[in-house]
């Protein structure tokens, strides 16, 4: 307990409180993220308003993801030139303002962050979210008696289950990294238990993206674990644990495995897709078909920042997709949505945000962590338009500009002062 209070005191004294708070809120509740952006900025100005000119000079490089993210936002401003629906365009620019705010902030300031603390805040937020959502589902279950309130969209009470599954997946990845870097048997067991809980709730969301991401991340980190671990006897133990988890899901949750089977079937029979089932994979394929048609017609410059939704609805109406028109669906693919709105340069700028995030820096102790986060954020853009609502825009803008911009630090055990981190990625 004393160690916990010491950590809280150090955080209050040295900060950045706003960034740690933001990390905890990402998987917990997107409604407070906008307020937390203000906290991050005000805290920095209170601690020091001085701009590090040397840091700013280094940030003005094509290798900085923030430059591409800021350019991506400015392209939305340029898209106003040939926009007819200015009302939607103005709303869109305001909603996406953090795509410009965070890159500028991290170009001017380089916060000192204890990475382990950031990770633990994110994981803590994920577990609080699990507890809160489970409790809400339990209250509804008492009234209705239907157990399905503990699965699927019924389980996610604060944000869309697709977004929540992505953030739980990042927390799950963090737990796997902590398992790889374990320092004691107790911590190893706690981290394994935590990872199993997170993996279980990702499955309960019934998000196809979450399920596929869970498989990929588990396999990827198991390979990393197998290569780096010195105690080789742990490898078969983890094989049994992971296999047991997936076998348990397969045996006890047949409706979830059926969702995966239906996804595969829909991909194989895409020519028979129906718009009458908008939550299904085959409906997404129809939406992508409409998207590709608009992309071909507006390849270079798109239809404009404010007209993307109107043009997409118009195209679906022409194709007879009345259900899509009624629900005013977007592309359900961020790259398609961006291309329709801004043209090919919008897609290039967005891709460069991810490319520059995976480049190795001169001093890069946490690159392995960054690669996992960036990979999860990237694959989430394929089946979902993640940066078309606040639940995705603000976390994406923060993470994609923050991950290469902060100074990782540790505490001196004797003087309790901050110093730059020179250790490995563990």
UniProtKB/TrEMBL annotation:
It is found in: Membrane. Its main location: membrane. The chain crosses the membrane at residues 20-42, 62-81, 93-109, 121-142, 162-180, 187-203, 209-227, 234-253, 336-356, 368-387, 393-411. The keyword Nuclease does not apply. Residues 194-351 form the O-antigen ligase-related domain. One of its GO terms (cellular component) is membrane. The keyword Protein biosynthesis does not apply. It is a multi-pass membrane protein. InterPro entries: O-antigen_ligase-rel_domated (IPR007016), WaaL-like (IPR051533). Keywords: Membrane, Transmembrane, Transmembrane helix. Signal peptide: none annotated. Pfam families: Wzy_C (PF04932). It comes from the Bacteria. This is O-antigen ligase-related domain-containing protein. The lineage of its organism: Bacteria, Pseudomonadati, Bacteroidota, Flavobacteriia, Flavobacteriales.
């Amino acid at each position: 307990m004393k160690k916990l209070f010491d950590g809280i005191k150090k955080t209050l004294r040295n900060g950045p409180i706003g960034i740690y708070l933001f990390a905890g809120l990402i998987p917990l509740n997107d409604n407070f993220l906008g307020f937390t952006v203000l906290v991050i900025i005000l805290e920095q100005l209170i601690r020091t308003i001085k701009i590090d000119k040397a840091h700013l000079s280094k940030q003005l490089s094509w290798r900085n993801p923030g430059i591409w993210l800021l350019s991506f936002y400015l392209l939305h401003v340029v898209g106003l030139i040939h926009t007819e629906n200015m009302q939607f365009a103005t709303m869109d620019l305001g909603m996406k303002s953090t795509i410009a705010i965070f890159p500028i902030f991290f170009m001017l300031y380089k916060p000192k962050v204890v990475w382990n603390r950031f990770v633990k805040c994110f994981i803590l937020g994920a577990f609080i979210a699990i507890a809160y959502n489970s409790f809400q589902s339990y209250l509804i279950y008492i009234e209705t008696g239907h157990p399905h309130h503990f699965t699927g969209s019924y389980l996610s009470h604060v944000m869309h289950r697709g977004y929540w599954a992505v953030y739980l997946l990042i927390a799950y990845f963090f737990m796997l990294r902590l398992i790889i870097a374990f320092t004691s048997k107790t911590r190893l067991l706690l981290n394994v238990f935590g990872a199993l809980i997170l993996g279980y709730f990702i499955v309960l969301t019934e998000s196809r993206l979450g399920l596929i991401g869970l498989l990929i991340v588990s396999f990827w980190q198991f390979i990393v674990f197998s290569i780096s671990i010195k105690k080789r006897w742990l490898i078969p133990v983890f094989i049994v644990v992971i296999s047991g988890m997936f076998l348990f899901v397969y045996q006890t949750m047949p409706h979830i495995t059926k969702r995966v089977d239906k996804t595969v079937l829909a991909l194989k029979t895409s020519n028979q897709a129906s718009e009458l089932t908008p939550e299904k994979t085959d409906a997404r394929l129809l939406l992508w078909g409409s998207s590709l048609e608009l992309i071909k017609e507006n390849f270079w410059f798109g239809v404009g920042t404010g007209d993307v939704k109107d043009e997409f609805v118009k195209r679906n109406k022409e194709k007879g997709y009345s259900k899509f028109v009624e629900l005013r669906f977007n592309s359900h693919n961020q790259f398609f949505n961006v291309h329709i709105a801004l043209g090919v340069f919008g897609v290039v700028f967005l891709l460069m945000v991810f490319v520059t995030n995976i480049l190795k820096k001169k001093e890069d102790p946490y690159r392995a962590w960054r690669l996992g986060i960036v990979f999860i954020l990237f694959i989430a853009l394929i089946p979902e338009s993640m940066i078309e609502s606040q639940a995705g825009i603000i976390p994406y803008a923060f993470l994609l500009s923050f991950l290469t911009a902060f100074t990782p630090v540790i505490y001196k055990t004797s003087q309790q002062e901050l110093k730059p981190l020179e250790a490995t990625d563990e």
